[in-house]
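>> received
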Amino acid sequence: MLGAFVRLFPVLTADFPLNDGGLFFTMSEDIQRAGYALPEYTSYNQSQLPFAYSPLAFYLTAALGDVTSLDLVVIVRILPAVLSALTLGAFYLLARELLHSDLQVILATFAFAFLPRSFEWLIMGGGLTRALGMLCLLLTVWQAVLLYQSGSKRHIVWCAWWGGLTVLSHPGIAWFAAFSCAIMFLFFGRTRKAVVHSLLVATGVILIVLPWVITIIERHNASTFLAAGGSASSYPLWLVTLNNLIMLSGEPGVQILLIVGLLGVAAIIAQRQYLLPAWLAAIMLLDPRSAPTDASIPLAMLVAVGVDQVLLPGVTALIAKLNTTKTSPSGASKRLSHAVLGLLLLYGFATATISANPVLHPRTALRPIAAADRAAMQWIAQAPEETIPPESQFLVLTSADFWQIDAVIEWFPSLARHKSITTVQGHEWLPDDQFADLQIQYNLSRHCIPEGVECLEDWARKSDTAFTHLYLSKSPRGNDEPERYFAALEAELAANPAYKLIYSVPDVSIYTVR
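>> returned
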């Protein structure tokens, strides 16, 4: 219940989806407009982006919108958190098969509930696909373990079913599911019968996803999938891995759960039980783009091992050592063990709550775009054509640190109904490294904010990028001071006759290029 509360509370207290989700909101609209036929392209950002993303979450969102008559924005806000809460039950089922005691299973479930990286990227708007994919992944791996342990044929069907739904939910998590099941095979299978069962599961998954895959290949050819598969970080693997290790648990401040998890790694390796450490290492190496989120699954189990096999025995040993009366120390040991568990529970709940609260954790991405931005985008969408022509192209500038957490730039095409020339989302499906190139252009344009108008115009010439409007979002996204950040640029724009201010409120300014 506490874990579900942590996931649902930030969403229910917000009035808009947290952080991202604009692309998925528009794709769900596209599904409705197409009468539930799979669209060839998404209308998002007027960019002819292939509708090649795993579509299950969009169909679910569209159907819920039609059945309940709720606005799709409301569904994109709430559904990811509900799906994320359901992952707690799926995790419990998996932990029950991989851990050695009921206490470890309960501890692991609490750890998974409270590790910030287990839910941060699932409950935001873009978690629409991530949360559904994670839920299906946990059920897939759970069924794979049962299949290899029991050999029962009914688990073949269920493993294939959940595996197919994982592929149809999220392409990146589908890869996570594939190598996770391979790891389970190495530790629980390795028999001829298990090989046959694995092939049958793979065949079932292929049969489930084949109609969708064939449709995408016929429309856009296989290069669409290849482009998305090559859209990982351009940074060196060692640097990405180091960064992932630093932020593995996502705890603000001292990472106590991570430390306990590392104690669990040492304990379990000392017992020559290598499954969880191997799974954790495979995630870091094979899925660096999403490693901290994916790693929360084995890390939560390792936290439970660390508590059960290191911390609690350490408490017992400490009480025995301090016992100078030679009386039975069991009562004091039990009380201190309960105190340790209570403090860890309190710490985990506090950590999860703080990490999801923009007031307590200013740098969190778990915040909706400001009401001022939504009002400005609505004004753009409703503006007459003589004010903002349909072919207008906006350069959107914000104070966000990275494009992944730049919610304004993602929601702009969905709410303003005009093109944002540096919005990255959706371009991973385009060939010729357009996804990476657009990330570079996004970063270069932002670097011009403190440099001024001349830098922006020089960037536009060099990148062969034309913009007809400037949209400046000064809504705070953390500890920054966006008003001061944009002050010099706005002073230049006010003095430059080539730019005309057409919309102004304290947090948003919109200029047209004369």
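>> The CA atoms of residues 319 and 333 lie 6 Å apart.
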